[in-house]
Design a protein that fits this description.
Length: about 240
């Protein structure tokens, strides 16, 4: 039986134990299945676990949070129902610290701050609109951001979302700062990237292990793509 060509363990799998599977998701892959019928990350992970542990039946893979399809970076999957239940609770109660990196075309002004919007999603068009005032149908969205510096001809922004709303970072940077993410034509960037990704990367997740209670921190390198190359200079020494 040949190993399924899912991913290279050295690159995409950041961590695995009895309860967790932490993946550096490539851009372009769904985290969970939708009506496109494309194979999602959760199914790829189940196939990987079934092969690795020679399971006769289906492997359990639980999805506690999602990244948009064109976004890369850290995704935490659960290998047990106990871990999934507790991860769901931690994400719901904002007990997970999320750090994203975004490339934008111009330097945000001010270069650091806090953004609050009320977001209303249009499920038909799959687009979210941000309002600066309270909206009767809106969900409150908060994030902190800071410019890390210039990365080539772009600017690298670190974003820490406090809430987890659909398209939150994308629409808040575009609406609140006038700095749409590189490649994100849906929210105002002028041109797509060659691989149709957007320059938004889930750089780091920090949380308490759902079973062992150990403090965990998972950090994903940015994709090996030309538009991200200059951002590697901002890796910690």
């Amino acid at each position: 039986m040949n190993r399924p060509n899912i991913w290279s363990e050295q690159e995409e799998i950041l961590f695995e134990d009895n309860h967790l599977l932490i993946i550096n998701k490539p851009a372009g892959i769904l985290v969970q299945g939708d009506n496109t019928g494309d194979e999602p990350l959760s199914a790829k992970a189940a196939e990987y676990l079934k092969f690795k542990y020679k399971k006769p039946g289906a492997a359990f893979v639980g999805v506690a949070h999602r990244l948009d399809r064109p976004v890369s970076g850290v995704v935490a999957l659960a290998k047990t129902s106990k871990a999934l239940s507790r991860l769901n609770e931690m994400f719901r109660d904002n007990k997970v610290t999320k750090t994203y990196w975004a490339l934008v075309g111009k330097c945000p002004n001010p270069t650091s701050g806090h953004l609050t919007h009320w977001l209303v999603k249009d499920p038909i068009r799959n687009v979210t609109k941000a309002y600066t005032e309270r909206h009767s149908q809106g969900l409150k969205a908060d994030l902190d951001y800071q410019v890390l510096g210039q990365a080539g001809n772009r600017f690298l922004v670190q974003v820490n979302p406090i809430t987890g709303r659909p398209h939150q970072i994308r629409v808040q940077l575009a609406t609140g700062l006038g700095t749409p993410i590189v490649g994100d034509v849906k929210y105002g960037f002028l041109s797509p990237l060659p691989d149709v990704s957007i320059a938004l990367h889930a750089r780091q997740l920090e949380f308490e292990h759902p079973v062992t209670k150990e403090a965990m921190c998972f950090r994903a390198p940015v994709p090996a793509m030309p538009h991200w190359e200059a951002a590697q200079a901002f890796y910690p020494a």
